Amino acid sequence: MKQPKDETVTQIAVVVADIERACEHYAAVFGIEKPAWFLTEEADESQIRYRGQPTPARAKLAFVEFANLTLELIEPVDGPSIWRDHLERCGDSVHHIAFGVKGMQQAVDEYEARGVPMVQKGEYPGGRYAYLAAADKLGMDIELLESA
Amino acid sequence: MKQPKDETVTQIAVVVADIERACEHYAAVFGIEKPAWFLTEEADESQIRYRGQPTPARAKLAFVEFANLTLELIEPVDGPSIWRDHLERCGDSVHHIAFGVKGMQQAVDEYEARGVPMVQKGEYPGGRYAYLAAADKLGMDIELLESA
Questions:
Q1: How far is B32 from chain A (nearest CA, A)?
Q2: Is A93's CB within 8 Å of B32's CB?
Q3: Would you say A90 and A135 are in contact if contact means Cβ atoms under 8 Å apart?
Q4: What is the pTM for the complete model shown?
Q5: What tens digit of pLDDT does each residue of A76-130 get?
Q6: In CATH, what number is assigned to the domain containing residue A63?
Q7: Average pLDDT, whole number, for chain B?
Q8: Domain that holds residue B28
Q9: How far away is chain A from the Cα of B47, in angstroms, using its nearest Cα?
Q10: Which of B59, B35, B36 has the alpha carbon at shortest distance from B129?
Q11: How many beta-carbon pairs under 8 angstroms link A with B?
């Protein structure tokens, strides 16, 4: 596993109750055009698994590009999911930071060996993701992203 | 004010109840030496102002360097402060992202004109900071940092 000094934080993700409203706020505060959002694919496409089980959960996603990373907005749709858990527990707030990996299973195994369990995973057009439940230790979760 | 695509996120900051314990967790999860923390200067040095008033608040700070930004851990000491507010409301969690600025007052004025009020400011060896209360709009606050 990379040392933090060699690890790039590619995303910071904020879970929100209302992505339309959040996009309006991001546009107003940063003086940009309102980010567009889209709905993730249905479960049979995304192969989403939450705590080992299939779930119908989807999400509305929007992105704001900063110079050195992407800020992601996530509104949970249906559930259960790690996004909905976070929203119910914490309200609109930062949920995770993301790292790119090569070799998803090995990376997940390494984090799990360090006490950070994988609790949700899925596919998206172009790659796959896994969420590691680190909030109790790090104050936020970790997402691993692997391009296909 | 810079557009997000030209703005570098220099820090992500996590407010924690116990920085010693948080440093142990960061070391264990990321396989690094335990980060060292230090206590910020007393109020007469830091010139800290919270909601326009002097406050005895200080903080214990530790840093973990990633390739493209610094992760900051903050334990509130005494108060009142924006850090203590966040900890009491949200527990251990991400409080803000930081941007570097040149011309602090102009930057603060621009954010305030966009509906994001400055609620805490202070000096540190080498520069000054200001916190903008954006959590209700962005899901996190913003810190502006200006080198002296």
A1: 7
A2: no
A3: no
A4: 0.97
A5: 999 899 999 999 999 999 999 999 999 999 999 999 999 999 999 999 999 999 9
A6: 3.10.180.10
A7: 97
A8: 4-147
A9: 27
A10: B59
A11: 128
